[in-house]
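Per your request, structure below.
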């Protein structure tokens, strides 16, 4: 006989405990012996979610995923959006929301150690950046994207003071987004999130963005334009100079697409963890990504993977 008992391998609700005991009863009825460790959540750097005791979901291309860290601020309700890699740091922009219908909120920039996932610091973003969809670094200038807006800030001084130190804010034609950002040389690439139609990703010089002129950035400022896949959530340039795009839409299957940066042709398409958001490229050639599936706002999805995670491009399998 199996005793009805409270599990002790992580915080959770009464419903979680009922489901766990049902699994053990089912296993006993089938003549199986399942140790509690079989359902244990892995110990990862960062603060594990205390609002849900689920195990991490098995995800596509798991063999290509290396280091994994809990996304910062999960227990405070933060939803990760933008990501970029700067040397030994992973920078993540997130907004606070626990409600499905609230897609804006107080936002912060979190700094994680790339090698160990340790939280190095954070600072608040301006209230007008309540959905910071993309990040990119050009030298020591950090760019933050929010639809129709682009913020340039002094990264070193912001870290030193613990407060956002803006250098310039630029309005952007919303036909161009920006929903995400990627940096290549002295250009920023950005485009809109679209569920239908024929969107494009645009390259605009950093000099134009930082110029004293107050005119919004528009299509005429683009030095290059290429087709963009639908459902684009993030972008980065990989070690082979192709443009990687993260594509996701709610609880649907997600993908990584590798594009020819000159023509926009899709060179390869790889299944990815659901809820994947922005991408970054590390000096060692690995990609980094962040996912919102399993945050408090999006905790009803079938995928539970609220992580910052490393991807080895050489191990990805197309599908």
């Amino acid at each position: 006989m199996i005793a009805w008992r409270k599990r002790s391998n992580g915080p959770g609700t009464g419903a979680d405990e009922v489901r766990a005991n049902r699994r053990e009863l089912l296993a006993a009825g089938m003549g199986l012996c399942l140790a509690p460790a079989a359902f244990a959540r892995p110990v990862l750097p960062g603060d594990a979610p205390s609002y849900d005791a689920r195990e991490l979901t098995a995800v596509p291309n798991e063999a290509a995923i290396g280091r994994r860290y809990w996304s910062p601020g999960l227990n405070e309700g933060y939803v990760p959006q933008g990501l970029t890699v700067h040397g030994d740091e992973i920078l993540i922009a997130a907004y606070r929301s626990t409600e499905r219908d609230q897609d804006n909120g107080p936002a912060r920039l979190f700094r994680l150690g790339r090698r160990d996932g340790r939280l190095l610091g954070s600072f608040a973003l301006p209230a007008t950046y309540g959905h910071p969809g993309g990040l990119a670094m050009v030298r020591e200038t950090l760019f933050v994207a929010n639809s129709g807006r682009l913020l340039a800030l002094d990264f070193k001084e912001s870290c030193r003071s613990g407060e956002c130190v803006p250098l310039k804010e630029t309005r952007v034609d919303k036909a161009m987004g920006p929903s995400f950002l990627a940096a290549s040389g002295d250009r920023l690439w950005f485009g809109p999130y679209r569920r239908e139609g024929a969107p494009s990703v645009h390259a605009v010089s950093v000099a134009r963005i930082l110029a004293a002129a107050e005119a919004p950035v528009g299509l005429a400022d683009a030095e290059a334009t290429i087709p963009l896949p639908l459902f684009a959530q993030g972008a980065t340039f990989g070690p082979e100079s192709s443009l990687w795009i993260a594509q996701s839409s709610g609880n649907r299957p997600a993908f990584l697409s590798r594009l020819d940066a000159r023509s926009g042709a899709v060179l390869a398409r790889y299944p990815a963890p659901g809820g994947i958001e922005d991408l970054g490229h590390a000096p060692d050639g690995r990609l980094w990504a962040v996912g919102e599936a399993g945050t408090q706002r999006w905790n009803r999805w079938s995928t539970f993977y609220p992580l910052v995670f490393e991807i080895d491009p050489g191990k990805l399998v197309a599908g």
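The chain has two domains: 1-40, 44-315.

Regards,
D.
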